[in-house]
Design goal:
The chain has helices at residues 6-26, 82-99, 168-188; strands spanning 48-49, 55-56, 69-78, 101-103, 113-124, 127-137, 143-153. The chain is an alpha/beta fold. The chain has one domain: Double Stranded RNA Binding Domain. The strands form two sheets. The protein has a five-stranded mixed β-sheet, sandwiched between helices. It is elongated and about 40 Å long.
């Protein structure tokens, strides 16, 4: 018996869901700018409190040496719980600093490139898949490009909480891919 390759099974199983998510998000022009957090909890901003009253530590803001990209701003990330956004924020800051991409605080005047993030987690057997979409927008909010992909992690969440299976390594891989694509986009223009 010939067994279908794992990637083929995953594509058949999650392909429609991922396609739906990407199509649904392709029409997004605006989202709740707070994503359930006070505006200062955005990536690159100061400390704040969540909608439940918990204090949310300030995300890391990367200031890089002279770069050919940036500064850029990260607008609120939609779809992920606060601890995941905080970990992703730190990973994005570290990766941006390593790659020489400047990040401006979210509450600063708009920069030429701003990123709106959308994340979704899906459990698949002993793995968790994180689908990410970043709309790269101009200061007026018009989409000029899109960075998207998915990362598979060895962590196992539950059907009720697939985010429990998302590791720091998975979020670091998303940050690496995001900043890499952003750097390519910034130097191509």
């Amino acid at each position: 018996m010939v067994r279908e390759p794992r990637a083929g099974r995953a594509a058949r199983r999650f392909g429609p869901a991922v396609a739906f998510l990407l199509v649904a998000l392709s029409g997004c022009r605006s989202v709740d700018p707070t994503a359930g957090l006070s505006p200062a909890a955005e990536i690159g901003a100061g400390p704040s409190t969540s909608s439940t009253g918990e204090e949310v530590p300030a995300p890391i803001t990367a200031t890089a040496p002279a770069t050919s990209v940036g500064p850029v701003q990260f607008l609120p990330v939609v779809g992920a719980p606060v601890p995941v956004v905080e970990t992703l924020s730190a990973a994005l800051g570290a990766e941006a600093a390593r790659a020489g991409v400047g990040i401006a605080p979210a509450d600063a005047p708009p920069t030429p490139l701003r990123l709106k993030g959308y994340l979704s987690a899906l459990g698949e057997g002993r793995e968790t898949v994180v689908v990410f979409v970043w709309d790269v927008v101009d200061p007026a909010g018009n989409r000029i490009s899109r960075i998207q992909g998915q990362e598979r992690g060895a962590g196992q969440g539950t059907a009720a909480d697939p985010w429990a299976g998302v590791s720091q390594a998975t979020l670091s891989a998303i940050a690496r891919r995001t900043i890499g694509e952003l750097a390519r986009l910034g130097t191509a223009g």
